Amino acid sequence: MQKELCCELYICFMLQIEVGGQKYSTERTTEEGLVINGQKSVVDLVHLEGNHYHLIMDDQSYLIELISREGSEAVVKVGGVKYTATVKGETELMLERLGMNMKAKKSVKELKAPMPGLVLDIKVSAGDAVNEGDALVVLEAMKMENVLKSPAEGVVKAIKVGKGDAIEKNNILIEFE
After folding, report:
1. Which helix H or strand E contains 68, and what residues bound it?
2. What's the farthest any 2 CA atoms get from each other in the chain?
3. What is d(CA 41, CA 134) in angstroms, rounded to the nearest whole number?
4. Helical residues (DSSP H) of the chain, grouped into ranges
């Protein structure tokens, strides 16, 4: 039944789902195809009404109810059984790989560049108090402007780059007190 939960949550385009300590990676292959942990499945998911869905996967039928979804946690009922799942999308997985996951956010002491690029703008100064989500640096990478935001509340201790600087991935951009 946990495999079915992966399919239901995949409608949100999530890439990794953890249920009861088991991790499931999902990838859409075609309009009807889904790969779960390397195994291909044929799926047909239909929204019925409200938070109810009907799923046909590999010739089996399931009724699914999305009970709640808060942040990265979702509670669903599949065939009358409740499951709680942690759902991670591509962004969360990338931040985790860069060592910037949610658990590490609260104790972060520095902001590192997630990719190489060019510093277009610095939105803060040393001594500024910042809140989680405040814009700190605008970085141009691959012809796109990326606004790097504060991972937590804190005070800017030092700015380690200047406007116009070319930086590499993992360069320290800002230090926090």
Report:
1. strand 60-70
2. 61
3. 41
4. 2-10, 90-97, 102-105
Q: Does residue 90 sit in helix, strand or coil?
A: helix
Q: How many CB atoms lie within 10 A of CB 30?
A: 8
Rounded to the nearest 5 degrees, what angle is found at the Cα of 23, between the Cα atoms of 113 and 151? 25
Each residue's pLDDT expressed in tens, for the chain with a length of 177 residues: 444 444 444 444 456 788 878 888 887 776 667 788 888 888 787 889 988 988 888 888 988 898 988 877 888 888 888 888 887 777 777 777 776 655 544 557 899 999 999 999 999 999 999 988 899 999 998 889 999 999 888 899 999 999 999 999 999 999 998
pTM here? 0.45
